[in-house]
Design brief:
Length: 336
């Protein structure tokens, strides 16, 4: 059976099951992730949301977890799994669905956001402003980002100029644009695939957050990290739209009460806290941590200003999205 046929068949079965129960007592909500239960996004975003919703709604719903890819292990398939109804709720990485959510890549623009919390709140607000396409066929429960993306390498570098001619793993078109701008070659790979490629010597490093490196075992194949703020990968937690529309309003309100911006902010903070701990632990283990100075970062901003113009030009409604994104960052820093 082809993958498309499998998805269609499984989705039909799932829809019938949902239709038979409707939105009555004990409506089962299957919450899935391709990552293991110990992954940061599961521990600090998905599980807290599940537990809070279950506690408030009681026997109106039954939240059932499926971690570690039990309902679909391929990270590139997650959006289709939710949209088709194979799973009810899952978190997706827009970078793994090229072209589906072009404006979400704003958070990956280099030298902009400074923390996971900041990036997460700004991403949610950008979605609320109606500026992120591609989400019409699903319901968005929250949006967040992990910690700020850095570069993790087989061998240490002193600066971005050392990466000319290198091959680097990226997770989307915005990261690929940056990698090309510094004279390196982007390779779109999943985290596990990137580790294998680094071990084989077919790539020189990967753009990745520190929590992602820990979750997927990247430190086993890297020896150094270059700490320069390269944006943050956007994440969405989505629900199948047919299921969402079938739920009573009071159930929907509880789900969003524990989702939305508040969950985005707490998720981003969790990544930031863990990142500080991971950096210190890895440094103690001999991992070389090279930190770009503020002066160096300012120089990078000036040298690569064309990335923002190119991103806006190549993204639908890109200039308005970019202007709004930068304004939302200013608002966050001003406490608005």
């Amino acid at each position: 059976m082809s993958r498309a046929s499998f998805l269609a068949t499984t989705a039909a079965a799932a829809f019938l099951a949902i239709a038979s129960t409707g939105a009555s007592a004990q409506t089962m909500i299957r919450v899935a992730s391709f990552t293991p239960e110990g992954a940061v996004g599961v521990r600090f975003v998905m599980k807290p949301w599940m537990e809070a919703v279950q506690a408030e709604l009681g026997d109106k719903v039954e939240m059932v977890p499926f971690w570690g890819g039990a309902l679909g292990p391929n990270p590139f398939d997650q959006f289709d799994l939710v949209r088709s109804g194979v799973v009810d709720v899952a978190w997706i990485l827009p970078g793994y669905t090229p072209g589906q959510f072009p404006q979400a890549g704003a958070t990956e623009l280099p030298f902009t956001v400074e923390s996971g919390e900041e990036a997460s709140v700004v991403l949610w607000r950008l979605y609320e402003a109606g500026l992120i396409d591609g989400l019409e066929d699903v319901h968005v429960l929250t949006a967040w980002t992990p910690d700020i993306t850095n570069i993790h390498l087989v061998r240490p570098i002193e600066g971005l100029d050392d990466l000319a001619g290198a091959s680097l793993r990226t997770a989307g078109s915005t990261q690929a644009m940056f990698v090309e701008a510094i004279g390196a070659a982007p390779q779109t790979l999943g985290s596990v695939e990137a580790n294998e490629a680094m071990q084989r010597g077919t790539i020189d490093g990967q753009l990745q957050g520190w929590t992602g490196m820990q979750t997927f075992g990247g430190f086993a194949v890297a020896s150094a990290g270059y700490r320069v703020p390269l944006g943050a990968s956007p994440f969405f937690m989505l629900m199948n739209k047919q299921l969402w529309d079938s739920l009573p309003q009071d159930v929907q309100e509880v789900m969003m009460k524990h989702g939305g911006e508040a969950l985005a902010a707490s998720g981003g903070r969790a990544y930031d806290t863990l990142t500080t701990e991971i950096v210190e632990t890895q440094r103690d283990r001999g991992y070389q941590v090279i930190v770009a100075s503020d002066e160096t970062i300012k120089g990078y901003q000036e040298a690569h200003a064309g990335i923002y113009e190119a991103w806006a030009a190549n993204t639908p409604n890109g200039q308005e999205t970019l202007d709004t994104y930068l304004r939302l960052i200013e608002d966050f820093r001003a406490g608005r």
